[in-house]
Amino acid sequence: MDFGSKIVQLRKDKSLSRDDLAKAVGTSPAIIGRYERNEITPSVEVAAKIADALDVSLDYLVGASSFVVKDKKMLHRLELLEKIEDDDRETILKVVDNYLTSAQLQTTTKKLKQKN
Q: Which residues contact 97 (CB under 8 A, 6 or more apart)?
């Protein structure tokens, strides 16, 4: 998905009009429309404001990452995790991995029970 299409989709996901997004970014709805149609490309500063207004990372918006973190608390946790020592990080990730495996197993079990 290209830059403009991402803006359109994310804006609609958040139920924002072009006018709403334009106000949040500090530009006009017409300019937002031109970004959405890929007629012009915003500066890095404006792209960062758009990403912030749409609650996504700039990397996701410009296509440098296919993963979108829409939960700002989760993004904050990931940022904190990057700042701690490697040994502590590995311990935390092992615990998280165990919880994720357990949750996936429970979800699969529930789905199987519903089919029977």
A: none
